[in-house]
Write the structure tokens for this entry.
Amino acid sequence: ADSLDLEYNIELLNRGAYISVDRLFRDASSLKKAGLAAELIRLGWANKLFFAHDGICYQDYMNSKTEVYAHEPVDRLAVVHDTVLPFLRENGISEESINMILVKNLQTLFE
């Protein structure tokens, strides 16, 4: 869900797709994406959502001359739990919906 366009995301969901609210970082864009997720949850789409970030522990495929971080901040790995989930809870999203996104949807995908 790089697009924050609610109607576009609903169109994808109506076609049967899952939406991954992805590339979550510790910045304002993550709160906008969390806002999109909250609206989709309110509209009944919690069963088709995932959360993801692009943080990794170590980039061993980069050489020292590449201007990309060899190590990312470790706290970036917890952005979903530290930033997105509190935002959702503060905006009235239930633990049942959060559990569906974090656990049940993944179980369903891999069954």
Summary: The radius of gyration is 15 Å.
